[in-house]
Amino acid sequence: MKQEHIEHAQGWMELYSYKRDVCPTAHAKLAEWLNLRAGGDNRGLLLAGGFGTGKTEFCKRFLNSWKLRRAIDIATMYSNHGTGDVLNEWVHGVYATGSMRVDPWDVVIDDVGQEGQAKHYGESVEVLGQIMEQRYGYWLECGARTAITTNMDYKQMTARYGLRTMDRMLHMCYVVKFDAPSARGRS
Contact, 118 vs 124, CB < 8 A? Predict the structure, then answer.
């Protein structure tokens, strides 16, 4: 890791009172991603690792212009409403409002893997896998970025969502591993 990335990470984490001591390696990689992004790289993020390590906190503080939704809430919305307007509104962007087209927006899908399979009228669906596939298409089409937080590792995610989906996620996202114990309860 380059020294300027580490210094950049320390500067912005201090500015936002973010706990950089929880997982310094991950935070240096996040600083690297911010630098890449400033240079025109339009990949999103896949933040993976243990609970309580700052993945969601990072998204709330630094990706606050992105629309954030928990994976379990998405599965519940699907169970209640199907794939209609509720999911289209925030996951895909509003495509057609009269004659106006709006491109999909940047989203954060939090706690992927904590949701169960969604059911709508008896049909069981791995709705997050489908959404991640669609987000990949939007990234290629118009640059809409996706950030994903998860406590799952690569093997668990591949078993759950499939190799094809993981291959696409790894293409559209910059991966940051959070290898640290939970910081909850620490001062």
Answer: yes
Q: What pLDDT is stored for residue 9 in this prediction?
A: 53
Whether residue 110 contacts residue 71, with contact meaning beta carbons closer than 8 Å, is answered with: yes
Which residue, 67, 3, 57, 65, is CA-closest to 35? Answer: 3
Nearest to 1 by CA among 33, 40, 48: 33
How far apart CA 180 and CA 187 sit, in angstroms, is 16
Task: Give the residue carrying structure tokens 């093997």.
Answer: 155
Q: How many CB atoms lie within 10 A of CB 100?
A: 8
Q: What is the mean pLDDT of residues 88-117?
A: 69
In this structure, the number of other CB atoms found within 10 A of the CB of residue 21 comes to 12
The separation between CA 91 and the C-alpha centre of its own chain, rounded to angstroms, equals: 12
Pairing of strands 173-178, 67-70: unpaired
Collapsing DSSP states into helix, strand and coil, what is residue 60?
Answer: helix
pTM here is: 0.80
User: Is the model's pLDDT at 83 over the cut of 80?
Assistant: no
